[in-house]
Design a protein that fits this description.
Blueprint lengths: L1 H8 L37 H25 L5 H19 L15 H7 L4 H16 L6 H11 L17 H14 L5 H8 L27
Length: 225
């Protein structure tokens, strides 16, 4: 992991760092990060490095979280900081005019993990919910078990049904895909695939039922300033 960080660090002063953004939109209270920070992302031949950096941050976050669980340590503010860095990168890429088609699928391995550790304020939750909706609208179906995890962390049971209020963006084709996914979920699985489906290998000690459990990211109240 440190070697990967060192490789990225070599390109921090690259000429392909984006220093300005064409026609930036005014920021509002709904914006959870500054998506126009100079030098946040790369362009040109280093464009793919943006997705590598997001995945690296996600890997570091989960490694540190699992280490804290193993050692029975309290959550550190650093976990939230790593999630916020991912959030900023994702939002900056999403607004960049030259992002290209299909860019959003590069977030499928990281956006769920970062959403678990972002601040619990409503605007952060809505940011995550909108990104999850876009992910599914682009054809990547979020596992029901993981929807349940986020619903419990956010204390929003309606997320088990759909990400956005009033079924916004929940099209007929999305409903049909969800139905097919639910049918597949009910098929008998062997032990290994059962664990994969339930994501036990990733969230083996994640508690979302006990609000007093300090090991759960749902109870991290660290500042995000």
């Amino acid at each position: 992991m440190e070697r990967a960080k060192a490789i990225l660090q070599q390109y921090e002063d690259s000429e392909e760092k984006v220093r300005s953004y064409p026609e930036p939109l005014p920021l509002t209270d709904e914006d959870v990060v500054d998506p126009y920070e100079p030098g946040c992302i790369w362009q040109g031949s280093l464009w793919e490095a943006n997705f590598f950096k997001i995945d690296l941050l996600s890997t570091e976050l989960m490694f540190k979280y699992q280490s804290m669980l193993s050692l029975k340590l309290p959550l550190l503010p650093e976990l939230q900081s790593l999630a916020l860095q991912q959030c900023q990168l994702i939002e900056t890429i999403s607004r960049y005019p030259q992002r290209g088609n299909g860019y959003f699928m590069n977030f499928k391995n990281s956006i769920g993990i970062s959403s678990m550790f972002l601040p619990r304020e409503g605007n952060f939750q809505m940011w995550s919910r909108r990104k999850m909706a876009v992910m599914e609208q682009n054809g990547y179906i979020i596992a029901p078990k993981f929807r349940a995890v986020l619903a419990a962390i956010w204390q929003l049971p309606e997320v088990n049904h759909w990400w956005l209020p009033h079924d916004e963006g929940f099209t007929d084709i999305m409903r049909a895909i969800r139905t097919l996914s639910e049918e597949k979920k009910d098929e008998p699985l062997d032990g290994f695939r059962e664990n994969v489906r339930d994501m036990k290998s990733l969230f083996w000690k994640l508690s979302v039922d006990d609000p007093e459990d300090e090991q759960s990211p749902s109870n991290s109240h660290h500042s995000h300033t």
